[in-house]
Amino acid sequence: MQKVILVGYMGSGKSVIASCLADKIRYLCYDLDDLIEKKASLSINSIFSQKGELYFRKLEHEIFVTILNSKESFVLSTGGGTPCYFGHHELLRQEDIVSIYLKASIETLYSRLQAERSQRPLLAQFNQNEMKEFIAKHLFERSYFYQQAHHIVTVDDKSPEEIAVEIEKLLF
């Protein structure tokens, strides 16, 4: 049994790469944000706006711990903040887990997130200049937690398929 956990900043490609990797290695694929939305019967945006970030983080923690205790092999894409709360970065060091930090440059993140700004609760209030500054600052704050992953894979200028192949080589 092996659990592959993808961490990284929003826009780093965790969800797309998790799906691609899971197909490639024939594992189940889970997206933590999707699991949270199903449990809450609300979108992530609605959870943030109606119930607040603290409620979201508690729900995220509950679901994250539950899935990590599962007895199956899977690939999990986490939210950008998942490893930064409740000691989650420590949980990623468990014996049956391989954690992978999908590292993207500020330029890559900015270009990917510009079009999605309104769907991202943490970015919605910023204009373009403010958004780039926020990404840089926020990424710096979260870097310690991301760096705790077993492996770091740079995603700049690579397709999801190329990244999945790179991760597969790290796993087997």
Describe this structure in words.
This protein has helices at 14-25, 32-40, 44-51, 53-68, 88-91, 106-114, 128-146, 160-171, and strands spanning 3-7, 28-31, 74-77, 97-103, 151-154. By secondary structure, it is α/β, with parallel strands linked by helices. Strands 2-3-1-4-5 form a five-stranded parallel sheet. Helix 6 (106-114) crosses helix 7 (128-146).
Give me a quick take on this structure:
This protein is 52% helix and 14% strand. The protein is an alpha/beta fold and 172 residues long.
Name the poorly predicted regions.
Answer: none
Largest beta-sheet characterization: 5 strands, parallel
Work out the number of β strands. 5
Give the ordered list of helices and strands.
EHEHHHEHEHHEH
Q: How do the strands of the widest beta sheet line up side by side? A: 2-3-1-4-5
Give the mean pLDDT: 94
Helix content: 40-55%
Cα Rg: 15 Å
Total helical segments: 8
Overall SS class: alpha/beta
Using the alpha-carbon principal axes, give the shape.
globular
Strand % is: 5-15%
Span from first to last CA? Answer: 13 Å
